[in-house]
Design brief:
The complex is a heterodimer of chains A (492) and B (441). By secondary structure, chain A is an alpha/beta fold. Chain A has 22 helices and 13 strands. In chain A, strands 1-11-10-9-12-13 form a six-stranded mixed sheet, with helices on both faces. A four-stranded parallel sheet of chain A has the order 3-2-4-5, sandwiched between helices. Helices cover 46% and strands 14% of the residues of chain B. In chain B, the strands form three sheets. Chain B has a five-stranded parallel sheet with strand order 11-10-9-12-13, with helices on both faces. A four-stranded parallel sheet of chain B has the order 6-5-7-8, with helices on both faces. Chain B is globular and about 65 Å long. The two termini of chain B are 37 Å apart. Classes of the chains: A alpha/beta (492), B alpha/beta (441). The interface between A and B is large, with 73 and 80 residues.
């Protein structure tokens, strides 16, 4: 396998994957366009604040154990690291390591001022990188860019090149200027691009390890047990990994992920560069996802028969309970608002596996094609099933979501990505935030989620009281309008 | 402001969007990147006492979500659209347009756009709060000045006894809701009518309308807000009283009540009676805690603050003047502008018994922690800082309480540290930390 030089930056998802943030229709229609990457994005003439790619890049890289970060930006661009630090402490503690001591993530900001926008600030950046190295002696330093550093044309690559002699660790630029993309998941690609370009080394030998790209690895015990029986060792990336561990991802037997939207770029690049096979198919949400995920792995590593034994065991163990839950939840109406992978996975799980009725599903963006060239499997699956669930794509536009919820008044709202769960509760709708990526992992996760939904639907006291006392910040006029009045597609 | 920062403890000027959210019926409208509000609100709000988005925060904030097109071609049209639709969609009485870094660099004239709406009689003001203009402490002042200039109208007459209260920066102070409520209560006890602008469920925009009619402006803050009260004096001729320390505990709160009372010509007997009743009650509680205070096995007699100037000064006054502790270095982390630093240093020299505290101004947490390691500590240190110090305190075997942003390890609803009851609350929290930390892992 000859290594190809990676380009200096990875293109944003609008350009690379035909990603869109504005659409209304159905999955079969969207997929019919997506397979030829021909669905036009529809913009909005009213918008609300959402999230940016730099947040995704910084938060994702922020949890690498021995890395330090420098954000070349005005101070506000770095405040998300306060939340990252809280999350990282939680995540490390949850690992249950022996003798674990809490630590703060190492994160610096170059504190760009107005003068810096006129005279440039690469010297300041170099000083900050030097100081970051002096204080922490990390395994690598990542330098994240910002709207300001991008617009004033800071040459970060050259600045870091100059420091190479002085600082004997990888110094990796991460290009994540917020204005360049509406799709914050582009930040994951920027983070992985930096890891692939500056951290990952060519393989010494192939191992039985499997790269699992995820967030906080809460199902690691369960997955490790399953994989051990297949003779494989999962490595959960990138949170709580060391730079050394990440440098070896090229040696793995396979790559897979909890969410295709997270891992499309890294999985594809590892496959292209180093021949690490990427496990294709559904992601492990619910029964079909779990089966597809493990069968995909079995196929790649030649353990198909062993996988079938595992699946049969899991099924026998949990199916009776799932059938009971199906009866209880049958026909309960749900609205979904999540990232694209999870949104379409949850439509499948709630409808096909828990017997609920999904009355609306919104994804925070949609990649028409992954880096492999295929459209996302979660969407393809719904398309094959001729799903008639009404869907939309919107980058967390709360006014649109609240209008939809206000009109549909579902029994429950399931969301992922903070920011909307409490708002649904304001109009009296039961609301569950899927904060952990493994919340509906396989059979066991399905039982757990089913129970959680049942509990939320059983005691409605909290939302009833909230709706009595709290008010949405929207005018009565807006709540009565067509939910998509401000979407270009609808205006045409 | 330090050259570079590790462990940020404040946002940028655009973080003042949280100050707008703190005014009931006011709505921020951002001309900024799509991620700015999530970052700033997530830090200044959600990870600082876990304050939620409230009525209109977080993902509900109208924003132009500047993209490549606006960077290249300018974003004025986009801003005009967003304001127009905000007026129809968002149920609010005042719309405050805040600019981020990008429109300021590419040269959008947000002011002109806002003025178009003002000329049409719409309740729109604008403020230039690009992140590189400074911290959200500075941004807070910029926003208040913008409201003074573009929204407030002169009052027909002064309302006797009406006092506008300007103090802690909403959300940046995790205990802002409770602190303002306690200050309101104390000022009312002097027979005055406090006018508090910030806080959910308060009058908000209607309270702003009353500002020009006040008898005086009361600023309780080391430096933030001084420009605003001076501006109000220039514009409406309203005098102001600048009280530099957040009053915590009996000594400082007594001083505060006297200062306010005398400034407002309140009868000294009334002032003395208010103070007497509070001190009597305060010391009854202290009497019941004497064993805790004197007999807890490990009681640090020295303390370090790593906090913004409100808390650093306020807590130091309380711990020295009421609790008899000795100050080690006090680290002030709010990026105090150079012109205010000497006055703040002087405040740290005004303790009982001629005690003085060394002050270091730095918002670089990594630097601060290196400096603390240099101090020859006498016993286990008591560190009153932020949740960044939680980890650090463990490393140096100290006791720690998060009081200054980020307060990322506590849910704060209406608790407070201001006043007599605030002092008691601070004692409860400090001793609870000492008692719990000494017996648990």
């Amino acid at each position: 396998m000859t290594e190809k030089q990676l380009p200096s930056e990875v293109a944003v998802r609008e350009q690379r994957l035909g990603a869109i943030t504005g659409y209304k229709g159905t999955v079969p229609h969207l997929v019919s366009k997506a397979t030829s990457c021909s669905q036009k994005n529809s913009s909005r003439c009213f918008t609300q604040a959402s999230s940016c790619n730099s947040g995704c890049a910084q938060n994702y890289l922020g949890e690498i154990l021995d890395a330090v970060f420098v954000n070349h930006a005005p101070v506000g661009c770095s405040v998300d690291q306060i939340g990252s630090n809280t999350l990282n402490k939680w995540s490390e503690k949850a690992r249950g390591w022996d003798n674990w001591q809490p630590r703060n993530i190492g994160f610096f900001n170059t504190n760009m001022t107005k003068e810096d926008t006129v005279f440039g600030a690469t010297e300041k950046l170099e000083d900050t990188v030097r100081e970051a190295y002096r204080r922490h002696k990390p395994g690598a330093i990542f330098v994240t860019t910002s709207c300001v550093s991008g617009i004033i044309g800071e040459d970060i690559k050259s600045a870091l090149e100059e420091l190479k002699e002085e600082i004997p660790i990888p110094l990796a630029p991460v290009f994540c200027e917020g204005f360049k993309t509406k799709v914050w998941a582009s930040g994951f690609d920027a983070a992985f691009h930096a890891i692939l370009s500056y951290i990952v080394k060519p393989p010494r030998q192939k191992t039985n390890k499997v790269n699992i790209f995820n967030f906080h690895a809460s199902a690691r015990v369960e997955i490790t047990e399953l994989f051990t029986r297949l003779g494989l060792e999962p490595v959960f990336m990138v949170a709580q990994c060391t730079i050394e561990q990440l440098s070896r991802m090229s040696e793995a037997a396979a790559s897979m992920a909890i969410c295709g939207s997270l891992s499309t770029y890294v999985e594809n690049t590892l496959e292209q560069q180093y021949g690490v096979p990427s496990v294709k198919g559904l992601h492990p949400q619910g029964i079909a996802g779990f089966e597809g995920w493990l069968r995909g792995l079995g196929k790649v590593v030649g353990k198909e028969a062993e996988v079938e034994v595992l699946l049969a065991e899991e099924k026998a163990k949990y199916l009776p309970e799932i059938q009971e839950l199906r009866q209880i939840l049958q026909g309960r109406r749900a609205v979904i608002g999540m990232g694209p992978g999870f949104a379409h996975d949850y439509v499948r799980v709630l409808q096909e596996e828990l017997g609920m009725e999904v009355v609306w599903a919104t994804s925070w963006h949609f990649d028409q094609q992954f880096d492999s060239g295929a459209s996302p499997d979660s969407a393809l699956h719904l398309s094959e099933q001729k799903s008639n669930v009404p869907i939309s794509v919107c980058d967390l536009q709360a006014f649109e979501m609240m209008n939809i919820l206000h009109k549909l008044k579902p029994d429950i709202y399931l969301s992922r990505h903070g920011g909307t769960a409490g708002w649904a509760a304001k109009i009296g709708v039961a609301s569950i935030m899927i904060s952990d990526e493994y919340d509906v992992f396989g059979y066991r996760g399905l039982v757990k989620l089913g129970n959680r939904i049942q509990d939320a639907l059983t005691n409605r006291s909290r939302e009833r009281n909230l709706a009595k006392w709290l008010k949405l910040p929207y005018t009565a006029w807006w709540l009565e309008q067509n939910s998509f009045q401000f979407l270009e597609q609808e205006g045409e | 402001m330090s050259q570079y920062l590790e462990q940020v403890r404040h946002g940028c000027a655009l973080g003042s969007l949280q100050s707008v959210l703190a005014i009931n019926r006011a709505a921020p409208v951002l001309h900024a990147g799509q991620g700015c509000a999530a970052k700033l609100g997530g830090a200044i709000g959600a990870n600082n006492g876990f304050h939620g988005s409230g009525y209109l925060g977080g993902t509900q904030i109208p924003c132009t979500n500047i993209g490549e097109a606006e960077v290249v071609f300018g974003g004025e049209e986009r801003l005009e659209d967003i304001i127009t639709h905000s007026l129809n969609i968002i149920d609010a009485d005042l719309f405050v347009v805040l600019t981020g870094c990008v429109p300021e660099i590419v040269g959008d004239d947000a002011g002109e756009i806002a003025r178009r709406f003002q000329r049409a009689g719409k309740p729109v003001v604008y403020a230039e709060t690009g992140g590189f203009n400074g911290t959200n402490y500075v941004g807070h002042e910029i926003v208040i000045d913008a409201i003074i200039d573009q929204y407030l109208k002169p009052a027909a007459q002064t309302t006797p006894g009406l006092v506008n209260i300007w103090s802690v920066v909403p959300f940046q102070d995790a205990f802002w809701v409770g602190n303002l409520k306690e200050i309101e209560k104390l000022v009312r006890e002097l027979g005055l009518t406090p006018n508090i602008i910030f806080g959910a469920g308060r009058e908000g925009v209607a309270a702003l309308d009353k500002v020009p009619a006040a008898q005086f402006n009361l600023l309780i803050s080391p430096w933030v807000g001084l420009k605003n009260v001076q501006h109000l004096e220039e514009k409406f001729g309203t005098p102001y009283l600048h009280y530099p320390a957040l009053p915590i505990g009996p000594t400082e709160t007594g001083n505060f009540l006297r200062a306010v009372g005398i400034f407002a010509n309140v009868d000294t007997e009334i002032i003395d009676e208010v103070i007497y009743q509070h001190e009597k009650e305060y010391y009854a509680y202290i009497e019941s805690a004497l064993e805790a205070i004197y007999q807890t096995r490990i009681v640090p007699n020295r303390f370090i603050t790593v906090a913004d100037s409100f808390y650093s000064l306020g807590i130091a006054r309380f711990l020295v003047n009421d609790m008899g502790l000795i100050p080690e270095i006090q680290f002030v982390t709010d990026g105090v502008l150079p012109e205010y630093q000497e006055a703040i240093r002087a405040e740290f020299r005004k303790f009982n018994e001629g005690i003085e505290a060394q002050v270091e101004f730095s918002n670089d947490g990594g630097w601060v922690q290196e400096e603390i390691r240099r101090i020859e500590l006498k016993g286990r240190p008591l560190i009153l800082g932020s949740s960044w110090e939680k980890v650090f305190a463990k490393q140096v075997n100290g006791f720690q309480l998060s009081v200054s942003m980020p307060v990322g390890d506590r849910l704060v609803l209406n608790s407070f540290y201001a006043g007599y009851d605030g002092g008691l609350k601070l004692l409860e929290d400090i001793y609870s930390e000492i008692i719990s930390n000494s017996q648990n892992p």
